Amino acid sequence: MKWRRMSLGPVQTNAYFIWNQQQECLIIDPGSEAQKIYAFVNENKLKPVAVLLTHAHYDHIGAVDDVRAKYHIPVYIHKKEQDWLVDPLLNLSARTPYSEEIVLKKADEMITGEGILQVGPFSMQVFETPGHSPGSVSFYFEESQLVFSGDALFEGSIGRTDLPGGNHDVLLKSIHDKLLTLPEETLVLSGHGSETTIQQEMDTNPFLNGY
């Protein structure tokens, strides 16, 4: 499979596209700037089949309804954050100068736990990785050696835990128990910044050393 990162919005949140040989595509965390998303889909002749959300903070969800409506595709989110899409206080859009208040439709599909998630032709493993937010999840594509970690793990850093529902100890446990157990060559595709690998973060991430 192929993938591409697209940084969107005032805080440069990463949206991702992952697609197969048939050009069927998943869109992960379409945070804003829907027209850029449409342009990429058109240029690459992609056929979106679903939107996956790692979590429901405002900078990851701003273009969800536009993308859902244009392509008539379902939106997946963890059940713990299903209400965040419709509540600008929970998704933090009401608390930031970077966004207008975001009130979306409810998600079409709920992620209720860990395990294999089948979305159209795509099969992936879901890890619950709370700490940055209560319903944060990571999507692991074993065959492609990719994990989309949202705002749990970054290159050289970890997600902030000072927002409502955040917990530093819970986040560190999520990273160590769920992400750092993946093969070291696994590519980590984060919600902000550049890609990294599990090995690189195990070796150099100052937030993880000594846990």
TrEMBL record:
Residues 12-192 form the Metallo-beta-lactamase domain. Its cofactor is Zn(2+). Keywords: Hydrolase, Metal-binding, Zinc. InterPro entries: MBL_Glyoxalase_II, Metallo-B-lactamas, RibonucZ/Hydroxyglut_hydro. SMART domains: Lactamase_B. Pfam families: Lactamase_B. It comes from the Bacteria. One of its GO terms (molecular function) is metal ion binding. This is MBL fold metallo-hydrolase. The lineage of its organism: Bacteria, Bacillati, Bacillota, Bacilli, Bacillales.
